[in-house]
Amino acid sequence: MAKVPVPLERAHRLIGPGPVVLVTAERKGKVDITPIGWAMPISVRPPLIAISVHEGNFINELIRAAGQFVLNIPSVDLVRQVQYCGTHSGRDVDKFQVTGLHQAEPEEVDTPLIEECIAHVECSLVDVVTPGDHGIFIGQVVHAQAEEEAFKDQWLEKTEKELRPILHIGGTVFSTFGERFDTATLPAEDAERD
What we know:
Low-confidence stretches: none
Order of helices and strands: EEEEHEHHEEEEEE
Distance between the termini: 19 Å
CATH superfamily: Electron Transport, Fmn-binding Protein, Chain A
Strand order of the largest sheet: 2-1-5-8-9-4-3
Number of helices: 3
Strand content: 25-35%
Shape: globular
């Protein structure tokens, strides 16, 4: 098969998608919700997660000032709210009010959760690295919770559609989990090959 060049500004899409998270942060009564497609675990002990946030985003300022943030994992039925939150600034609008999303009480931080989301990861800010136009925020997980019907040690794909996380493919295109396979159950390959 022939391969075609990928523009460098789209190369990040080759290693995505990952579950979209709605990041919340609050400082002095100002709250913002921003969808992030660039989130990843970076350590198990201690539990650390990194998110990449554009330097000009309001959520960037709030996380730096508050020293904490929450990753709220939305499901398929929240995709319109995700799109709205990604195309409007929290400096200009109250995204909770406009989207109809509701704040919920966190367990360990002072940043509100999004009640309608299927999982939440509360983080205390450990470090920020700014190698380019995005800051990489490293947070230590201080509490995590998920809908029982959606997550049992891993995301369950055989759940109702409204309990599946969404994946950001790029631009306005999203997806959810497709076919699942377990390498432990795949048939063994023939020892000899042609």
